[in-house]
Amino acid sequence: MDNIDAMARQELRSAITGGRILEITTTTGCVVGCSYCPQDKFAERQREISEVKDLSLQDFKRCLARVPAAVDISFSGYSEPWLNPACTEMVEHAYACGHGIRILTSLVGMNGQDLRRLRALQFRVFLVHVFDDGTHMDSSLVRRNYVDLMRQLVDSDISSLLFIVRGEVHPELVDIIPEEVLVRSRPPHSSAGSGELKVVGARQPLVGALACPDERQYRNVLLPNGDVTFCCMDFERRHVLGNLLRDTYKDLFEGASFCEISDRMNGADGFLLCRSCEFAEAITSQC
Predict the structure, then answer these.
(1) 8-14 LR contacts (CB < 8 Å, sep 24+)
(2) Going by DSSP bridges, is the β-strand pair 21-24/219-222 parallel, antiparallel, or unpaired?
(3) 74 touches 19 (CB < 8 A)
(4) 127-168 tens-digit pLDDT
(5) Which residues pair with 220 in a beta bridge?
(6) I need a labelling partner for 263 at 20 to 30 A (CA). Which of 37, 120, 170, 179 fits?
(7) Are 192 and 265 in contact (CB under 8 A)?
(8) Could you tell me which of 21, 89, 81 has the C-alpha nearest to residue 54?
(9) pLDDT in tens, 178-209
(10) In this structure, are residues 118 and 158 in contact, taking their beta carbons and an 8 Å threshold?
(11) Which of 31, 18, 14, 23 is nearest to 228 (CA)?
């Protein structure tokens, strides 16, 4: 990333790493329209598995009851969290249960009442994905009410507030967001002339043992039907660890799926999503 204030860089990294995290995908499908997000692949695959579109508040509470308070809860996942009207109440419940709370949102679906309730809480980080100039996001969502909400957020005393934009900030938002808390990221680009936009180009799959420096194997994602996928990069549900409507949090890391993933990270044969992941690092043997 370019021109990032050092403190903002450090705080942004804290939003991604640090301890165990359970990301919450509150709904299947997203209207924000980021061209570099494989949202359609997730929605198509999830709908094949389950008819549950939205995570209900009741099911969220049932799942959360199985998760130790030491695990941070991140409202982010594979779609915009506030497209589920119960999202704010979920945040409040997780906070009341003693979990550290992390937010990653575009603000789409949020309203002034949600913001007023959120101001009463403390966050590890509150990261806003800012709309760009329409190059890679649906800028028609930046309407008057949205701009007003962004102003209210900037003027609030929300803790650990940061903003990130890929490309150029939407013209209606340029004069609202303070530069010192804005993380500017390079816009995505087409991979090998395929026309498919990606944040980074595809990598040659790694062979042998590998590691995830950010320990994303402990940054898992809860889906609306209670299933838990391996990590935030697993949009197509290639590695499902279990279901928190029936399994304990501990079960997720003692079951056959996680053990198989661990073996393959250590070099065993078999499909492993991590081999093509931009974050993975090969482990070189030392004699």
Answers:
(1) 8/162, 8/180, 8/181, 8/182, 8/183, 9/183, 11/125, 11/160, 11/162, 12/125, 12/127, 12/162, 12/164, 12/183, 14/124, 14/125
(2) parallel
(3) no
(4) 999 999 999 999 999 999 999 999 999 999 897 999 999 889
(5) 22
(6) 37
(7) no
(8) 81
(9) 999 999 887 554 333 333 445 445 567 888 89
(10) yes
(11) 23
pTM of the model: 0.89
How far, in Å, CA of 258 to CA of 280, rounded?
A: 17
- Mean pLDDT along residues 60-85: 97
The residues that bridge with 27 in the sheet, in sequence order, are: 54
The single-letter DSSP state of residue 132 is: B
CB of 202 within 8 A of CB of 192? yes
User: Looking at 12-66, which runs of residues are DSSP E strands?
Assistant: 21-24
Three-state SS for 96-115 is HCCCCEEEEECCCCCCHHHH
- Among 124, 119, 100, 156, smallest CA distance to 13 is for 124
- Of 158, 151, 156, which is closest to residue 126 (Cα–Cα)? 158
- Say how far residue 147 (Cα) sits from the centre of its chain: 23
- Our CA dihedral for 207, 213, 186, 74, rounded to 10 degrees, sits at 120
- Contact status, residue 10 vs residue 1, Cβ threshold 8 Å: no
Q: Which tokens is 146 given?
A: 């949205």
- CA pair distance 100, 110, nearest whole angstrom: 21
Which residue's entry shows tokens 């003027």? Answer: 155
Calpha distance 142→238 (Å, rounded):
34
Q: What is the average pLDDT score of the chain?
A: 88
Structure-token match 């194997």, residue found? 217
Give me the DSSP letters along 5-18: -HHHHHHHHHHH-S
Please list, in sequence order, all residues whose beta carbon lies within 8 angstroms of the beta carbon of residue 186, skipping any fewer than 6 positions away: 1, 2, 166
